[in-house]
TrEMBL record, chain A:
It is found in: Cytoplasm, Cytosol. GO terms for cellular component: cytosol; eukaryotic translation initiation factor 2B complex. Keywords: Cytoplasm, Initiation factor, Protein biosynthesis. Component of the translation initiation factor 2B (eIF2B) complex which is a heterodecamer of two sets of five different subunits: alpha, beta, gamma, delta and epsilon. Subunits alpha, beta and delta comprise a regulatory subcomplex and subunits epsilon and gamma comprise a catalytic subcomplex. Within the complex, the hexameric regulatory complex resides at the center, with the two heterodimeric catalytic subcomplexes bound on opposite sides. Coiled coil: none annotated. GO terms for molecular function: guanyl-nucleotide exchange factor activity; translation initiation factor activity; translation initiation factor binding. Belongs to the eIF-2B gamma/epsilon subunits family. Residues 544-553 have a biased composition (Acidic residues). Gene3D superfamilies: 1.25.40.180, Hexapeptide repeat proteins, Spore Coat Polysaccharide Biosynthesis Protein SpsA, Chain A. Residues 439-478, 527-558 are annotated as: Disordered. It comes from the Eukaryota. The lineage of its organism: Eukaryota, Viridiplantae, Streptophyta, Embryophyta, Tracheophyta. This is Translation initiation factor eIF2B subunit epsilon. Residues 557-732 form the W2 domain.
TrEMBL record, chain B:
GO terms for biological process: cytoplasmic translational initiation. This is Translation initiation factor eIF2B subunit gamma. Residues 5-147 form the Nucleotidyl transferase domain. GO terms for cellular component: cytosol; eukaryotic translation initiation factor 2B complex. The keyword Disulfide bond does not apply. Component of the translation initiation factor 2B (eIF2B) complex which is a heterodecamer of two sets of five different subunits: alpha, beta, gamma, delta and epsilon. Subunits alpha, beta and delta comprise a regulatory subcomplex and subunits epsilon and gamma comprise a catalytic subcomplex. Within the complex, the hexameric regulatory complex resides at the center, with the two heterodimeric catalytic subcomplexes bound on opposite sides. The gene is LOC110412826. One of its GO terms (molecular function) is translation initiation factor activity. PANTHER family: TRANSLATION INITIATION FACTOR EIF-2B SUBUNIT GAMMA. Acts as a component of the translation initiation factor 2B (eIF2B) complex, which catalyzes the exchange of GDP for GTP on the eukaryotic initiation factor 2 (eIF2) complex gamma subunit. Its guanine nucleotide exchange factor activity is repressed when bound to eIF2 complex phosphorylated on the alpha subunit, thereby limiting the amount of methionyl-initiator methionine tRNA available to the ribosome and consequently global translation is repressed. Signal peptide: none annotated. Belongs to the eIF-2B gamma/epsilon subunits family. It is found in: Cytoplasm, Cytosol. Keywords: Cytoplasm, Initiation factor, Protein biosynthesis.
Length: 732, 461
């Protein structure tokens, strides 16, 4: 039976067989499409940034190789030349059974674009691993792959398996560890199917909501706040075509995963695979850079640790997790604390203290320097008496004697700090000026940088430094003390809050308290039922509710305005091009459907367009205007009538007319009664509607006290109108 | 066990007309020839919870119920009967009898619960966690007759489905979310705060709140005093407590407790506190404790309280008699698959066929049937999966299938009764055919009439 079934669903069963023949492939995105590592990434791609003195991409490639992947497509976009050059010069091309191919693009602005491009190349056959080049892991893929394939056999819609890892709950941990936003996932505990994924937790929302159909379909759902997304995905071929089908998918999680979860037509399913003992994490920001560096030093990522990865340069592990390269010049009085890495050819002076830090190759560190929790890349010169705490210092930086870096400082390439200068906490310093353009969309911003700024830094890297220095020396001197070179980037609006969230510096306790408090308060605002709340919370939640309501109203009003415009345009076209009435009705109906309006709105809009036409056609006196209006109404009465199904719609027309008279075309006000009479004569309006309208208006007069300032003019005109209508009715 | 039990017995429920009447209020509805209240009281007695307050809606009903209890459980239970006005809701009922409540913890049980889950286990669970409220959860019952679908067509039949949406912690000990009533049909909204504190929450829609709760008295009284809008324990009080568990507004000060201990025998009181402390310390601190302590380890910054869940094992029987369908189901189950509820009883010899019954020739009483004492049946009758009460007179050639016949019912020759409920003192004349009907007490069905899916009752004077 089972064999027969397999035969019946030929396409499904073929895939695994095909897979057996095809090598396991992987797509490695060597571009994060974000700007979290600016200003460093203006000059060097993120995947080439050293992580414990080894470029990030090497960790990812090494893991892929060890996990049995045979062919890797490295997708490079920003600084693609640097990535390609690096890969060509590295050992990877010479590895047996491991093929690294680069795919270059210059105009991709998101992971979605990247995958669409790869789809066009037709290089992926069968299941593949999707990973970004900033991921460190040592997990075994065997089990996850097998689960994925077995699920695929049973259900062709199970197209993706996401790797997740247990982490501690509590926003404090998530924030303080990887600096990522909190993540809520709903998973079916039996099938491990992912049912809900919410990562951009809006802090204002104290609740997470599960769709009722999910609960109906799954008797048991486990909601997790204690899982961490490792950004390692095992995908089936369909994933690529899905990106092509949905050209608006940009972000892997925000668009693709959520899109699949929401879409119930195609029924694609995403599953999760949880790893327990192995390591997997992605470097998303400076904080996770810090955390993952520490994890590597503490050998959680074994075998991907410095002494094994760079076997030939002979880094040795010493006591207390300290790594030292073979040729290090170290003063006797220097203290190298626990969990510190010191690279090849580095010199360290007397009485210098270094703890929990990574020092790159060829650095010169003077005497009496204190370095704590910092990442110093290659060829950095730190003169005597400097202090660095929780800073990232890129290649070629010069710190003159006595300079101090406060926690959270990031120095991009070749910055020079003047003597005794104190760099304030969380500063970003670069030789490049901050791009003035501040697009709120991260992805687009990065695209700008990749297209516009790539050439400049690479030229700088290769070109002679002195000319650069002389150029820049005049400008930014003041910003970094005497002799300093570089611009301190101003923290742009809104980012102020984020700086400490993503910084390398540990989060201070008061900030932690603030996180907790913020979250609590946000929730208080929204704790359901008023009676649960403290009075202040209640007030706020009320106002919140009103705000959103207003927004909604505004939205629908905007809709209505544009709808009205469309109807008017349609109507005018119908008039000028002598379109048949039936066709005009059809068109208006189509508009109504596309804007999701009621026929009441149509009637109003059509009448408005008719009156406008009458007003706009040349007239010298009110009697001419009346004639114009009468003409228009006579010609197009069928159109109008086709939307007047009942009395409410007729009243709407009268109200609209009233509005026109009072606001847009005051010329009509003297003609109000006459035109109303005309409409009545043409059987467009019924007597009932007019009477009801009159009644309503009479009642409304008292209650409309809000419009006091309007009152004078408004009531006068309105009373006149009502007088007219009375007369009119009486006449009838 | 310093526990007081409040049995909310109800009164003349509208859901159950015409089965209930002034003479037979809901607590006295017969389930396998015993009032439904018996099952609750029996379970309480088994768990050694003997200090009871039975709350009945309406004075007349209270008298009837009181009379029955004093007759049946004399000397075995210490029962107070309290009459409360109708339609004040379960929370209102507790408010009304609040001055009677003195024990440290209160167990509130619905009087219509037919279950073999020991209330003592719920109480013990409550004590062990020092919880503010512990709710008993059971698997959703499968409604409708299991055998033939004939009586399933009634509009009263509930769709077998969801009664509650319940969120539990990974250890399945704490109640983190509960949605009842109309909320179930909406999208579920879960508090992120609680989710953050606990990390992982399991959402279950296959569990039902069985309306057996243990409350900490001080908190219950305070909540009821302060929030006078809360109407029902199930729909308002419990969700409120669950919702606010990490942001407790109920003052959980230990002062009243200490006072009580002071007033009572000091030694035993202290002992109890000690024991509960030891138990609390033995287990790893729950997320409530972790959450209540601010991260720098200083004094608790916010109050929390624990809401626990006691989940009955899936094999246990637990149904509430709150609809006619449930009444039929329970009667069927108690004589059938859940007959251990009966066999445990110590009272009079309730065999499947009671004593001093007379059966005519060729009359068969099938399995899972019950025939009360003193009933007489004529020749060639058939009884299948039905309960027949005491002192009924049944003629010849009568077929009773999937039905409940109460006491003192007279059934004429040649009647066919299927999936119906016949209340006490009903007279069915010859050749009556009833299918899926309810016949109210004292009604007379004339000879030869046929009814299907109807509810027959005498007009109220």
């Amino acid at each position: 039976m089972g064999a027969q079934k397999k035969g019946a669903t030929a396409r499904v069963s073929e895939d695994p067989e095909e897979l057996a023949r095809h090598p396991l492939q992987a797509i490695l995105l060597a571009d994060s499409f974000t700007t979290k590592f600016r200003p460093i990434t203006l000059e060097r791609p993120k995947v080439l940034l050293p992580l414990v003195n080894i470029p990030m991409i090497d960790y990812t490639l090494a893991w892929l190789e060890s996990a049995g992947v045979e062919e890797v497509f490295v997708f490079c976009c920003a600084h693609s030349k640097q990535v390609i050059d690096y890969l060509e010069s590295s050992d990877w091309p010479s590895q047996p059974n491991f093929l690294v191919t680069t795919i270059e693009s210059h105009n991709s602005i998101s992971a979605g674009d990247a995958l669409r491009l790869i789809y066009e190349r037709h290089v992926i056959h069968g299941d593949f691993v999707l990973i970004s080049g900033d991921t460190v892991s040592n997990m075994s893929l065997t089990q996850a792959l097998q689960e994925h394939k077995e699920r695929r056999k049973k259900d062709a819609n199970a197209i993706m398996t996401m790797v997740v890892k247990q982490s501690k709950p509590s926003p404090i941990t998530q924030q303080s560890r990887l600096g990522t936003d909190e993540l809520f996932m709903a998973i079916n505990p039996d099938t491990k199917q992912l049912l809900c994924y919410e990562d951009k937790a809006e802090y204002s929302k104290g609740f997470i909501s599960l769709d009722k159909t999910l609960i109906a379909d799954n008797p048991s759902i486990v909601l997790h706040n204690d899982k961490q997304d490792c950004y390692i995905d095992i995908c089936s071929e369909e994933v690529l075509s899905l990106f092509t089908d949905n050209f608006d998918y940009q972000h892997l999680r925000r668009h693709f995963v959520k899109g699949l979860l929401v879409d119930d037509i195609m029924g694609y399913k995403i599953f999760t695979h949880e790893i327990h003992s192995s390591y997997a994490a992605r470097i998303d920001n400076f904080r996770s850079y810090d955390t993952i560096s520490k994890d590597i030093i503490q050998r959680w990522t074994y075998p991907f640790v410095p002494d094994i990865l760079c076997g030939n340069s002979a880094i040795k592990v010493e006591r207390q997790g300290t790594y030292r390269a073979s040729e290090v010049t170290l003063s006797r009085s220097a203290q190298i604390g626990p969990f510190t890495v010191i690279g090849q050819g580095t010199k360290i002076g007397n009485d210098t203290k270094i703890f929990h830090s990574v020092i790159g190759e060829g650095c010169t560190i003077g005497s009496n320097v204190t370095i704590e929790g910092s990442y110093i890349w290659n060829n950095v010169t730190i003169e005597d008496g400097c202090e660095l705490r929780h800073a990232i210092v890129c290649d070629g930086v010069i710190m003159k004697s006595g300079a101090v870096l406060e926690p959270g400082v990031v120095f991009s390439f070749k910055v020079v700090v003047g003597q005794q200068f104190v760099v304030p906490a969380y500063s970003m310093v670069s030789l490049l000026q901050q791009p003035t353009q501040q697009d709120s969309d991260e992805e687009l911003e990065y695209a700008d940088s990749s297209s516009g700024n790539v050439e400049l830094p690479s030229a700088k890297l290769n070109g002679d430094i002195t000319s650069d220095l002389s150029e820049t020396r005049h400008g930014p001197t003041s910003e970094l003390g005497t002799g300093g070179v570089g611009y301190i980037w101003s923290i742009f609006e809104g980012g102020h809050d984020e700086e400490w969230r993503h910084s390398v510096a540990p989060i201070t306790t008061d900030k932690l308290a603030k996180i907790m408090l913020d979250k609590d308060e946000d929730e208080e605002l929204l704790t359901q039922d008023g009676n649960v709340l403290s009075p202040s919370g209640e007030l706020k939640s009320d106002s919140d509710g009103n705000d959103s309501e207003d927004d909604d109203n505004e939205g629908s009003r905007d809709d209505y305005v544009s709808f009205e415009k469309e109807v008017e345009a349609t109507f005018l076209r119908a008039v000028h091009e002598n379109v048949k009435v039936d066709h005009a009705i059809l068109e208006v109906n189509a508009l109504r459907l596309s804007y999701n309006m009621a026929s009441v709105d149509c009637a109003g809009a059509i009448f408005y367009s008719m009156m406008k036409l009458a007003v706009e056609s040349p007239h010298s006196s009110s009697s001419e205007l009346h004639r114009n209006a009468a003409d228009v109404i006579t010609t197009w009465q069928k159109l109008l009538k086709s939307f007047l199904h009942d009395i409410d719609e007729e009243i709407e027309v009268i109200l609209k007319f009233e509005e026109i008279c009072l606001e847009s075309a005051k010329e009509f006000s003297p003609l109000f009664a006459q035109i109303l009479h005309l409409l009545y004569d043409k059987d467009i309006l019924e007597e009932d509607a007019i009477l009801r309208w009159a009644d309503e208006k009479e009642g409304a007069d008292e209650s409309d006290k809000v419009f006091v300032q309007h009152a004078e003019k408004f009531l006068q005109v309105r009373n006149e109108l009502i007088m007219f209508i009375r007369v009119c009715i009486w006449l009838l | 066990m310093d526990f007081q039990v409040v049995v909310l017995a109800g009164g003349t429920s509208k859901n159950l007309t015409p089965l209930v009447s002034k003479e037979v209020p809901k607590p006295l509805l017969p389930v396998a020839n015993r009032p439904v209240l018996y099952y609750v009281l029996h379970q309480l007695e088994q768990s050694n919870l003997k200090d009871l307050i039975v709350v009945v809606e309406g004075k007349d009903a209270a008298l009837l119920v009181g009379g029955w209890i004093s007759g049946t459980f004399v000397d075995r239970l210490h029962v107070e009967i309290a009459a409360v006005p109708e339609d004040i809701g379960s929370a209102g009922a507790i408010r009304a009898i609040s001055h009677h409540l003195t024990a440290k913890d209160i167990l509130v049980v619905s009087g219509d619960l037919v279950s073999d889950v020991p209330p003592g286990a719920v109480a013990a669970n409550h004590r062990r966690h020092d919880a503010v409220v512990t709710a008993m959860l059971c698997s959703v019952p499968i409604s409708g007759p299991s055998e033939s679908g004939s009586s399933g067509g009634k509009d009263k039949t509930k769709k077998p489905g969801r009664y509650n949406i319940i969120g539990l912690d990974p250890g399945k000990q704490f109640l983190l979310h509960i949605a009842t009533g109309a909320e179930i049909e909406k999208d579920t909204r879960l508090q992120k705060r609680i989710l953050r504190a606990v990390g992982e929450m399991e959402i279950r829609s296959d569990l039902m709140d069985a309306h057996m709760y243990a409350f900490k008295r001080s908190v219950l009284q305070e909540v009821l005093d302060q929030k006078d809008t809360l109407q029902s324990l199930k729909q308002d009080v419990l969700p409120y407590l669950v919702r606010s568990q990490l942001k407790s507004e109920a003052l959980l000060n230990r002062i009243p407790q200490a006072e009580e201990n002071g007033n009572e025998k000091v030694s035993s009181g202290n002992n109890q506190v000690m024991v509960s402390q030891i138990l609390a310390n033995a287990s790893t601190p729950s997320f409530h404790d972790l959450c209540s302590v601010s991260h720098d380890g200083s004094a608790p910054i916010r109050k929390t309280h624990k809401c626990c869940a006691y989940i009955a094992s899936s094999s246990s029987y637990c149904v509430r008699l709150n609809s006619i369908q449930a009444f039929m189901d329970i009667n069927r189950d108690v004589t059938g698959e859940a007959d251990h509820l009966l066999s445990n009883t110590i009272s009079d010899q309730n065999n499947i066929v009671g004593p001093s019954t007379k059966l005519g020739t060729k009359t068969t009483v099938g399995p899972h049937c019950m025939l009360g004492e003193g009933s007489e049946m004529g020749d060639k009758c058939q009884v299948k999966r039905s309960v027949i009460g005491r002192h009924c007179r049944i003629g010849s050639h009568v077929k009773v299938v999937n039905s409940v016949v109460m006491n003192y019912v007279t059934i004429g020759d040649g009647c066919i009764i299927q999936g119906s409920v016949i209340c006490s003192n009903v007279q069915l004349q010859e050749r009556v055919v009833l299918k899926d009907c309810q016949v109210g007490a004292g009604f007379v069905v004339t000879a030869g009439s046929e009814y299907k899916g109807e509810s027959l009752a005498r007009k109220e004077k």
